[in-house]
Amino acid sequence: MNWLKSTLSAAVGTQEPIYGPEAIQSVAQQTSETPYTILTKDHLRWKAHQYTNVETQTFYAMADNGTLVLAQVIYSNIAGIHTTAVFNTKIFDLSGEGKHIWHSDALSNFMFDEEMLCFGADNMTITLNQEGDAYHIKSTVNPECLVDLQFTRKAPGFAIGKDGTSYFGTDPKNPWGSMTHSFWPRCAVEGSITTKEKTYDLAGRGVFIPALQGMKPHHAAARWNFLNFQTPTYSAIMMEYTTPPSYGSTKVNVGAILKDDEIIYAGVNNTATHTGSTSDPDSDWPEPTAIKWEWAGQTADGQEVSAEVDGPLGKRLDRIDVMGEVPGFIKAIAGSVAGTRPYIYQFSPTDKLSLKLKIGDTDVTEEGFMFSESTFIS
């Protein structure tokens, strides 16, 4: 048992001591001086740290024909001794029948270019163009899922504060962990994914999110909420996580509202409230049935901004048991030793919700497409 506990600790980690909320320096602390930073090419470099971390580039495509797709590279390092890279693709079944097309393929001979801006592996590349405003994702890693997509930024990309990063540790000058998110919330998408059944035309809209968890993921966050909401005119994005009790169950929320090619508001005064839930008997987590998302702040010229997306989530698209592939006895011990029981709930209501936006004295309401995730970890 002691050997198994130590092995699990190296991989997923035991629970940490109670350090208190002062042991996290939230990105919100940066916003008093720098509300947000516009992304340049320099901000898009891969970090590839040589300590335990998970670095991702995630692309969401919402095609004009109604297709919803995720493409993602996960680059992870465990304790500086074992590095892996995986390419994930998911074509969502929006009919509610759960017939998603999901592939997760381990990558071989993965590497970065000299500038750390592009990623490559055998039969797979993610290339940033010279202008720094478009990514080309191409993969023949899996013959049953051929990917050829281009995401072109149509509005400024941003990170909250000066670097989009919250830092963890009792000594702010020497943090032992971090969490970083950046966003391209409004992209034009071209290209396709070809499976053995058909070719999916993915011309439409997209979102790109690079992220870095510079510590064991379940030590950084116990719960997550994510929203990607797109209307013909507006984009609303929100990412919220709640730390474990070891860091005071602190909420960190970053989000923005954009119109066409400009940022209306980007900041941290946002909330994601589960206004309805039901107990999931398979996971014992309170699966949300309705969520209210709220943003509040100011435009660059000082006008007050408030916005909300509120309503039922409908039938869930998917529920992902993150440890589903782990043998049952190890999963049970991991849950008791490390307190981890990660499940991801994904939603995209068939009944359209609306973005209600107020800028100064002007009120706007516009229906749109919503994709959201709620994750319970520990």
Describe the structure.
- With 378 residues, the protein is mainly beta.
- It has one domain: AttH-like fold.
- It is built from three helices and 28 strands.
- The chain has helices at 2-11, 217-220, 328-338, and strands at residues 24-25, 36-38, 53-63, 68-78, 82-91, 101-106, 111-112, 119-121, 124-128, 134-142, 145-153, 158-160, 165-168, 177-181, 184-195, 199-201, 204-213, 223-230, 234-242, 251-259, 262-267, 270-279, 286-298, 304-312, 318-321, 343-347, 353-359, 362-376.
- The strands form three sheets. The chain has a 15-stranded antiparallel sheet that branches.
- A hairpin with a 5-residue loop joins strand 23 and strand 24.
- 38% of the residues are buried.
- Residues 215-378 form the Svf1-like C-terminal domain.
- Ceramide-binding protein that may transfer ceramides from the endoplasmic reticulum membrane to the cis-Golgi network membrane, and is thereby required for the biosynthesis of complex sphingolipids.
- Belongs to the SVF1 family.
Question: Secondary-structure blueprint of this entry?
Answer:
Blueprint: H1 2-11, E1 24-25, E2 36-38, E3 53-63, E4 68-78, E5 82-91, E6 101-106, E7 111-112, E8 119-121, E9 124-128, E10 134-142, E11 145-153, E12 158-160, E13 165-168, E14 177-181, E15 184-195, E16 199-201, E17 204-213, H2 217-220, E18 223-230, E19 234-242, E20 251-259, E21 262-267, E22 270-279, E23 286-298, E24 304-312, E25 318-321, H3 328-338, E26 343-347, E27 353-359, E28 362-376
Antiparallel strand pairs: 1-13, 2-12, 3-4, 3-17, 4-5, 5-6, 7-8, 8-9, 9-10, 10-11, 11-15, 13-14, 14-17, 15-16, 15-17, 18-19, 18-28, 19-20, 20-21, 22-23, 23-24, 24-27, 25-26, 26-28, 27-28
